[in-house]
Amino acid sequence: MRTLPRQKLRHWRRGSSRPLHSIANLEFGVYTRIMYNPCHCTRLRTATRKVAAFYDAALAPTGINIAQFALLRTVARRGSLSLTELGRLLGLDRSTMGRNVRVVEKDGLVTIGKGKDQREAVVSLTDQGQAVLKAAEPRWAKSQDELTARLGPDRMQFLDELERLL
Question: Across the chain, which distance is largest between two alpha carbons, in Å?
């Protein structure tokens, strides 16, 4: 565990040289440092944002980001899908999926139509969506190869294990 030196703590009490939440402000005042234990969730989210930014930069010339690429690729592979099914495949709730689909619909990459059940919306890839996906796939594949090379086989295997465990 790491410790934060007292001078790094914030929230000073007015007129005091000690931080308000310092352990030294407690009556027994034994410790002068607070133990710092990094949050696993925060660290994973930071890593995820960095990886997404890496892919987004590679896909930027095609006009889509990695989330949109995943959406288009899933629709291309599976054919027309309901919003509910698409959300399930991508691990997103239906309302989030609906917002994401509307963005690519405005760009002309997908269409949203009625399903067999009139209450269900169905997503289909347009010709323009196919063209963008075709242009994006080599960039995505190159990013995959670069990331695999940077992380190495052991870390890539760890990613598989992490996904399985969670």
Answer: 71
pTM for this model (two decimals)? 0.74
The model's pLDDT over 76-102, given as tens digits with 9 standing for 90+, comes to: 999 999 998 999 999 998 889 989 999
Amino acid letter, residue 54? F
Distance, in Å, from the CA atom of 157 to the CA atom of 159, rounded to the nearest integer, reads: 5
- Secondary structure class of 116 (helix, strand, coil): coil
CA distances from 60 to 40, 52, 126, 145 (A): 30, 12, 20, 18
Give which of 4, 3, 6 is closest to 16, Cα–Cα: 6
Instruction: Specify whether the CB–CB gap between 34 and 7 falls below 8 A.
Output: no
Q: What is the CATH number of domain 64-140?
A: 1.10.10.10
**Are residues 24 and 9 in contact, defined by beta-carbon separation less than 8 angstroms?**
no
- Is the Cα dihedral 59, 63, 68, 71 positive or negative? negative
